Amino acid sequence: MRAAIMGMLGRLRYDHSILFVLAIGIGTLAGYGAIGFRLLINAWGYLAFGASEEQLIAGIIRLPWWHMLLAPVAGGIVVALLLKWFLPDGRPQGVSEVVESVALRDGRMDFRAALANAVSNATALGFGSSVGREGPVVHLAAAIASFFSQRLHLSPAVMRTLVGCGVASGVAASFNAPIAGVIFALEVVVGHYALHAFAPIVVAGVAGTIVSRIHLGNFPAFTVPPLEIASLWEFPAFGLLGILSAVGAILFMQSIFWATDLRRHISSLPDWVFPPVGGACVGIVAIWLPEVIGVGYEGTDSALKGSYGFGLLIALFLGKIALTALCTAARFGTGVFSPALFTGAMLGGAFGVVTASMFPDFTSGPGVYAVVGMGAFASSVLGAPMSTILIVFELTGDYEVTMAVMVAAALSSMITHFAYAPSFFLRQLERRGLNLESGKASHLLKSTGTKAVMRTIFSTVPKSASIFEVRRHLVAQGGGKLMVVDENGALTGIISFADLPEEAFDPDLNHLVRAAEIMRANPAVIYASDTLESGLRMLERTGEHDLPVLSDTSARLVIGILNHEDVLKAYNRALLDSQGKD
């Protein structure tokens, strides 16, 4: 029976109706995965603080200071044990690992490690870690899709599409925002908007939203009061807020990397020490600024309603950046989506308070600026301006406010992209030696050596070879380049038909003219250790059709020929593959 089902799936692997059925199934399962993740966070939250994720601040402010301090430390100990026992590299995983998996492994992920990662992150969040829940949800949803895709032996293109389906469903279920979930999956994970991927991902996003609304109700992630822009003259202020958001986003991302580098330098301490240290940081901060611990949706809600004053907004802005950096570096959870929304709302709210004090008759309330700051800040951190704009639109339903977010997000994303990095996730991967900014095809050029595509059939002649031997070799190989080597086999020059003088065809000179006299000395070359990117750059700079590939800079032995057409074919194959076209 199983063999019959597998055979049918193999025959219908590219059938769109089957793909839609799989998308609905993956979207439904990923939606339940997101709900299960939230329930696990709440279970740990009740155990640690006697409060759910949605009422964490209200719950912890009633507790004695020692409880607020010790509970996150206990959570850090549990997380340390989970990381040591169940995760291969002892590191929590999130969106960047999903991007890497889709770009380089066709969406293949370790499902057991993903489950352990989800439990670890839910534990950290339940005990107050100042990170986001969306990153782990995205990772879990993608792993669910990958698990079933691998079991059904689906093609790489279909597998990547289904991983995108899982991501769309996970984000949609988390925010009750199906449009934003779909665009996030396409914009950040899949990397293209081709119709064959777009349609199933839409179906999966809707499926995840339906699951979420059935079990959690039709409630948005944030409760946004009615908002109204007081004057169109405010749009320059929204643009300025976009610029400030870019600066804040760069500070936010770099703080995480600074803290991570600091942890790596403390090599004398074992890895299991750091999650409890992160928990201690959470407990200490919670005594004075309880709003910055946990996912932070309560604090974000208050900022959107204009409930905080300028001083508290700035304190929460700086406190959230510091605590998110410390928790992430300590491996006490991962995820930057929620912290970016929180921090952006605080920055926007503070900017709104200042603007309102300067121009009270022409300025909207701080809540409008908090919404705009939230969208602009998150778009820079996530590298997903379209997704964050749509999240804001689905939250507010206000066209004018969404236009303000568009202006701020466009400026913020552009500045961050060119001044720092396209996104936090791509910067994470770049620090691990994976440059995926331009996608899988570009990474292939940067990471593949010339030996992978070079031609190994070529001809060489010694410097002392006669013109007769040179002509014979060129004719035998059908033109191209002939390698001239010295007595040690090192390349000294090249000869092609174009290099031959007219007298080279005079029979009387067959044995009088030597290769050394007519060769092109010191030709452009590429080395075996160089990448295809270097080879392509050299080919284009020199205008050559092919280049000799040498063993190294000292021996200079010819080991192959790098052909321009072969490099472009390899790039084109990777480009088509990344677009889901097998």
From TrEMBL:
InterPro entries: CBS_dom, CBS_dom_sf, Cl-channel_core, ClC, ClC-type_chloride_channel. It is found in: Membrane. The chain crosses the membrane at residues 20-45, 65-87, 161-185, 197-216, 237-257, 277-297, 309-331, 337-356, 368-393, 405-426. Pfam families: CBS (PF00571), Voltage_CLC (PF00654). Keywords: CBS domain, Chloride, Chloride channel, Ion channel, Ion transport, Membrane, Transmembrane, Transmembrane helix, Transport. Its main location: membrane. Residues 454-512, 519-578 form the CBS domain. It comes from the Bacteria. It is a multi-pass membrane protein. PANTHER family: CHLORIDE CHANNEL PROTEIN CLC-E. This is Chloride channel protein. It comes from Iodidimonas muriae.
